[in-house]
């Protein structure tokens, strides 16, 4: 596993991490035994970055991670978590010092950590980025030793650019994949210039870029790919990256001939993300060991040729951009 600098933090992390949303909730039926085995397999293979959140299974994801790390002992990986989505309504007024302290303390208990490696605001309202007092609350948490550093998880490029104006924002987590190219413009340039780590989430567009879905594919009731198709539960951009299902399927068929020999389409999609220098780590999810190891193997693929990168950009411009570019 190759490592990349995690912004200006002084840490390096393996370029493929473990996104732990799926082992918590909202992705259909998940067996804890498979989730635990997936985490162990990934860590055995050298993975050293895990991303979770306090609302993934109402803390279940965090507690599973703590269990695995306790079983393993020794040096632990870098664990990032998120807070803010426990609010009944997403309002700036809810991001108080008291609420942030309570959320952080709960995650510290769930993860069994005295100090959280990274606490990220979990897609707060856009207006939150224009309230310096919220970031001052995070500074106080660093001073108290509750968190080592803080970052943000955003929906929109506008939010990412505003967030990194705050000098101590260590990282930005953002949706970036072959269906969401906009972050690779001004935001990536500024993140590199300012030494801000970039965590690329939803790298497979909710599995669409695995190439395994068809028009008649059905998802379980508890899977957000069923219940959030139109943004009923949270931002629609989190489901299939906001691309209409049929549009995504058609684009995948155009991308399929670009997949390198011996690789899966999912691995190709992950390798495409790693072609971008600004990305510190990409966090695909995994429900079982096989998936986890296949994700990690993507890092070993050769660099993609310029003509392949250009063709991905062309397909995006032609088929995907009208649906997502100006919205996020």
UniProtKB/TrEMBL annotation:
The lineage of its organism: Bacteria, Pseudomonadati, Pseudomonadota, Gammaproteobacteria, Lysobacterales. This is Aryl-alcohol dehydrogenase-like predicted oxidoreductase. CDD domains: AKR_AKR11C1. It comes from Pseudoxanthomonas taiwanensis J19. Pfam families: Aldo_ket_red. Residues 15-316 form the NADP-dependent oxidoreductase domain. InterPro entries: AKR2_Oxidoreductase, NAD(P)_OxRdtase_dom_sf, NADP_OxRdtase_dom. PANTHER family: D-THREO-ALDOSE 1-DEHYDROGENASE, NADP-DEPENDENT OXIDOREDUCTASE DOMAIN-CONTAINING PROTEIN.
């Amino acid at each position: 596993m190759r490592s990349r600098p995690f912004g200006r933090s002084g840490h390096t992390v393996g370029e493929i991490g473990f996104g732990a949303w799926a082992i918590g909730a909202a992705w259909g039926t998940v067996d804890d035994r498979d989730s635990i085995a997936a985490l162990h397999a990934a860590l055995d293979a050298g993975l050293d970055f895990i991303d979770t959140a306090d609302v993934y299974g109402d803390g279940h994801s965090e507690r599973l991670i703590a269990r695995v790390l306790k079983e393993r002992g020794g040096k632990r990986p870098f664990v990032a978590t998120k807070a803010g989505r426990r609010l009944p309504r997403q309002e700036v007024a809810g991001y108080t010092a008291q609420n942030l302290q309570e959320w952080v303390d709960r995650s510290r208990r769930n993860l069994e950590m005295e100090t959280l490696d990274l606490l990220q605001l979990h897609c707060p309202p856009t207006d939150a980025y224009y309230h310096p007092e919220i970031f001052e609350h995070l500074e106080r948490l660093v001073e108290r030793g509750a968190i080592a550093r803080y970052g943000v998880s955003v929906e929109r490029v506008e939010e990412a650019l505003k967030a990194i104006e705050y000098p101590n924002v260590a990282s930005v987590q953002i949706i970036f994949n072959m269906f969401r190219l906009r972050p690779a413009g001004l935001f990536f340039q500024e993140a590199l210039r300012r030494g801000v780590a970039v965590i690329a989430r939803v790298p497979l567009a909710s599995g669409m870029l695995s190439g395994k879905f068809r028009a008649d594919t059905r998802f379980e009731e508890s899977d957000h790919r069923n219940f959030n198709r139109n943004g009923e539960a949270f931002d629609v951009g989190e489901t299939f990256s906001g691309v209409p299902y049929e549009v995504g399927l058609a684009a995948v068929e155009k991308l399929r001939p670009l997949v390198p020999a011996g690789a899966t389409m999912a691995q190709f999609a992950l390798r495409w993300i790693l072609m971008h220098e600004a990305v510190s780590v990409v966090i695909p999810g995994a429900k079982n060991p096989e998936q986890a190891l296949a994700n990690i193997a993507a890092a070993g693929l050769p660099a993609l040729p310029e003509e392949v990168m250009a063709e991905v950009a062309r397909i995006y411009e032609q088929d995907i951009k009208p649906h997502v570019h100006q919205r996020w």
